[in-house]
Amino acid sequence: MGRGKIEIKRIENTTNRQVTFCKRRNGLLKKAYELSVLCDAEVALIVFSSRGRLYEYANNSVRATIEKYKKACTDSSNTGSVAEANVQFYQQESSKLRRQIRELQNSNRHILGEAISSMSFKDLKSLEGRLERGISRIRSKKNEMLFAEIEFMQKREMELQNHNNYLRAKIAENERIQQQQEQQEEQQIKQQMNLMPVAARAASESNMPPAQSYDHRSFLPVTLMDTSHHYSRPDQTVEVQEKRKETRLSLPALFLYSNISVVAIKLLMYM
Fold first, then answer.
1. What is the pTM of this model?
2. How many Å separate Cα 225 from the centre of its chain?
3. Fewer CB within 10 Å, N- or C-terminus of the chain?
4. What domain count does the chain have?
5. Rounded CA gap, 33 and 156, in Å?
6. SS3 of 251, please?
7. 37-61 pLDDT per residue, tens
8. Cβ(58)–Cβ(45) below 8 Å
9. pLDDT of residue 211
10. How far apart (Å, rounded) are the C-alpha atoms in residues 256 and 247?
């Protein structure tokens, strides 16, 4: 439920009137303070109680505010007096801000080592102390960042070393497993060969091509002398038949050459 609307009139009860005055006075002082802070206004408040007691508030000075009020109200016929007062106030504020800007610019130039010829010994000493303190803070921050970077790099190095060791161990393990697999395969092959029956081994050996036999007289393979060994197909060409004739014609010469060689060897043995 909302509060009921209070009728604005004089409170007849003295006690209630005094309590209400204290509450409303504190609220008025609070509102004046908030107005001066929030709006940057120059506020002066003067309150007299029913007993003649004075209560006042001012963010600057009550007397200065009253004088300013009197100066603004000296010429009541001049309607532009308030505007002129405002213009004068803003001019003062602008001059104050310009002075602060000049001071800051001079301070920046002094920090850079410029325009120091007009400075006194005391000002130079103060500037030197400020610069030394600033350099000390800068070096401290730089060293802090450098140590943090070194710590990060060391941590990164340890991580890379651990990863490298892990990869090496993994490679070594893979090589060991591969060697074990190769050894197991060799053992399995040996076991299969040992368990293979003799007949099966003989059959596997019989599948190998037989060694060629040579004739002791002509030193030629017997298969080469066999005319039915090559070109047994019925569709042999003329060129193949000619080669076979040449081979048959050269065989007596080879036999003759081999017989002469045997006779020569026997003669050498008897000499």
1. 0.34
2. 83
3. N
4. 1
5. 59
6. helix
7. 898 889 999 998 888 888 888 888 8
8. yes
9. 47
10. 15
Residue-range definition of the domain harbouring residue 51: 12-75
Nearest-angstrom CA–CA distance, 50 and 17: 10
Residue 189, in any domain of the structure: no
Over residues 82-97, mean pLDDT = 84
- CB distance 115 to 106 below 8 Å: yes
Structure tokens at 130: 């400020």
Q: Both tokens of residue 240?
A: 């193949």
Phi, psi at residue 4, to the nearest 5°? -75, 155
Crossing angle of the two packed helices 62-72 and 81-111, in degrees rounded to 10: 130
Structure token digits, residue 108: 């920046």
Please report, in angstroms and rounded to a whole number, the separation of the first and last CA atoms in the chain: 155
Q: What is the CATH number of the domain that holds 40?
A: 3.40.1810.10
In the beta sheet, which residues pair with residue 47? 55
Q: Is the dihedral of CA 127, 132, 133, 138 positive or negative?
A: positive
Matching residue, tokens 């393990």: 173
